[in-house]
Amino acid sequence: MNEVIQQIRSHRSIRRYTDDPVTREQLESIIAAAQAASTSSYLQAASIIRVTDPEKRSRLVELSGGQPWVGKAPEFLVWCADFHRHRQLFPEARLGYTELLLISVIDTALMAQNALLAAESLGLGGLFIGGLRNHPDGVADLLELPLHVAPLFGMCLGHPAEDPILRPRLPQALILHENCYNPDLDHELLAGYDEEVRHYYAGRPGADRVTGWSEQVQETLSREARPHMRDFLQSRGFGLK
Ligand SMILES: Cc1cc2nc3c(=O)[nH]c(=O)nc-3n(C[C@H](O)[C@H](O)[C@H](O)COP(=O)(O)O)c2cc1C
Prior knowledge:
Elements lengths: L2 H7 L14 H12 L10 E5 L3 H10 L4 H5 L2 E8 L1 H6 L8 H24 L3 E5 L6 H7 L6 E10 L13 H4 L11 H16 L10 H8 L8 H7 L6
Antiparallel strand pairs: 1-2, 2-4, 3-4
Bound molecules: flavin mononucleotide.
The site of flavin mononucleotide has 11 residues, from strand 3.
């Protein structure tokens, strides 16, 4: 273990913040760290919208399903897949391929994860807000996003006003395969993990939900997964050719 790995492994989403601002220098360092991420074919197919306008923030709270931290975090960034720049530079650009959608989503996610880690290394905390995809059209309108730009998720950043315990991840043996995929789920290992997750929830203040990971997966994957996203992405010029 070194300090970087220790930092990475101490990640937990932060939803409550003090009123202390993120300084301009901190924000610049965070964005520079984001930009240092690997980028497919050097396309750098991502943009970030920093939302400082309080009215727009309030609207984003609504659009993300009423998540209060979206309004209260000192900083809120909207991370977008972006080929608008490329289209301006090269109007004949052949866009609308599924592959380009993947490239821009991967680029954006890599940048965002770098940003969150950089923020955490500065003593800040934050979290991703996929809730923006509840109403992606509303977000695109609010932020005046041109064609070929699609909001993927938001990110709250600020000084932590809470110190949550780490949320346990799956045992490595369940996610790391060697040379070929092992399709046989190790139920015994999973049962142990479910117990660990139940213990995690029981230890949280309020202990409002005490479930295992398996039950949570079942709950999540029993629901529709934002079926409007396909049409939305297509309407933004991210086709599925
Ligand atoms: C792309 C993405 C979107 C997310 N969206 C939300 C969200 O809208 N609201 C929220 O409270 N947490 C959101 N999260 C945070 C996850 O719930 C959290 O990362 C996960 O439960 C693991 O907990 P941890 O980050 O504290 O380790 C999101 C995480 C990711 C990666």
